[in-house]
Amino acid sequence: MRKLDKRTNFMTVQAALKELEKIEMVRLTDNKYRLDHAAKATQKIILKAFGMDASIIKHYAEEISIKLEEAKKMGRTRKNEFSDTIEQQIEKAQIKVVKSKAAYESSVSSLQVLLDKRDAVRKDELWKEILKSEKTYEEILRYIKVDNLTEE
C-alpha cells in the first residue's frame, strides 16, 4: 500500500489574520506592556511566513512600553491629571453646594415652624388677656388705633 502524501499546511488570509489577532499585549501593574501569553505554534508559523518570530513581537511590546513611559515623563499625561483634579474639585464643590442648600432649606423650614408657634402662643396670650379685661371691644380697638396714629 502506498502512503498518502502529507498535506501541506495552508490557511486562508482571513483565518491567518484572526489567529494573529489573538496575540495580545497587556499592561501589567508595573505599567509595562508584555505579551499576554506565549505565541502558539500556528501563530509562529504565520509569523515565520512574514520573516518574523515571537521574539520580535516581544521586542515591539517592550518598545511600546518604553515610549509610553517617555510620554509620561514629558508631561503629556499631566494635563489629564490636572483636568481630572479640577473635575474632581468641581464635583466636590457641587456636592457641598447641594448639601449646604439642603441644610439651608431645612433650617429655614424649622425656623418658620418656630415662628408660627411663637405667633400662636402670642395670639393665645393676647386673647386670654382681652377676655380677662374689663374693657369693651370698642375701647380696646380705639386704644390700638390711637397708638398706631401716634407712631406715624
Automatic annotation (TrEMBL):
Q: What is this protein called?
A: Uncharacterized protein
Tell me which species this is from: Lachnoanaerobaculum saburreum DSM 3986
